[in-house]
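Data card: per-record layout.
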Amino acid sequence: MKESETEEINKLEQNSHQPFLTSVLNAWKGVIAMVRDERNFRIEIAGAVISFALAGFFNFPLWKWTTIILTISLVLTAEAINSAVESLVDLIHPETHPLAGRVKDMAAGAVLIAFLISVIIGVLLYGPPLYQLLSTH
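The structure for this 137-residue chain is written out next.
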């Protein structure tokens, strides 16, 4: 093993013993960076706020709230992983490369799958009360 690799491993081992609070603060910095730098993340947060407002308006039961929270978590987590993958690919391979593009496309595809599933769940949860509201007026 090269000396530089040994130094990197030692740094990683030191970081793995950092206090829990430091890990949480570092993770929070990542969330702040997502909100500040990622337009799609902000759009998804806005969608989450609208979903919560509608769930409150329709007085959804606990199981629907749980489903909404899990679905939103799925989309936001997929977006965070996608953004991290894109940043890492850009760092490792800043010039255009077909394989780098493929990796980015696959990560974005995961977000698309999560989003499409969330739309289906949204239609199932919000469709009946929206239909009832609109058909009575």
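Known properties of this structure: Helices lie at 3-15, 20-37, 39-57, 62-92, 98-135. The chain has a mean pLDDT of 92.

See the next section for split statistics.
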